[in-house]
Amino acid sequence: KAICFDGALPFNKQTTRLGRLEKARALLERYRKQRPGPFKPSTPANSHSSASALEPSIWKKSFPALRHKDQLPPAPFIVACVLDDLRNDWKSEYRVLVVPGEADSYCASIARTTGAAVVSNDSDMTMYDLGSEGSLVLLDTLDLELGGGVHHDEKRQRPFLKARRLHPLNIARRLSLTTPMGNPSLLRFGFERLSDPSVPAGTIRSRFTSFLSAGVDEAFENFCKLYTDSKEVEGAKAVVNALAQLDPRLSELYCQYNCKEYVIHPPHSPHIYMPLLVEDPTRDSSWTYGKDEIG
Q: Given the DSSP bridges, would you call strands 165-166 and 135-138 parallel, antiparallel or unpaired?
């Protein structure tokens, strides 16, 4: 059992990351144009309400839809706050790990070796080899049921969780989807879907009987490498221990100096991405007052 956090992202994902930052900046800029005055912190209706009273709201299936102008970027330190809270939760049965890379491959490795379920909204997890028992539980399908059920015993009267569970190996077997080696896999299906998102599932299945052209075959091989590069927590234990108490941004900086796959070579230099703060985007960012000026 473990909760894994990204400790670093590969340099080739820089464009993706910058694109996300720009999208968040544009969202903040739009918000400020609609509300040019000072930010007003939201105040809960009852500031003395207990955590137990707020619990049911976590499982609400529908929330009032925000108008586009009412949307703000994600809170800048939400990941760091969640990470610190989990680290300090002595009652938790789960290990909290900041891994030297993207968490997906480490989660897949844990699921493959233990038969655990990966809880995530990232459907890409079905591309990994999760083993014969490993599966993906979609986070946004989690639902808290209060009692009831078929068996009306004492245990069934207590609250319990329900969710949609995807078993990639079983899905591949039922759809007769295999790798060129004959092993059940959703990799070819995922590749075809990525190449043409509009194509029907039936058409994708029919393509499995045909060979890929030379150029497409190379692209497919590169796609497979993203999901077949197995990474074990035990194999990176020394680095995982070093990252144990670091913020994910500092862990990424650490990896660029200490992990060969993340070392940045000239003309590039080690880099760190600061979160977008909720502030007026037409003025200097608060981050600019913390950097040294070199003259």
A: antiparallel
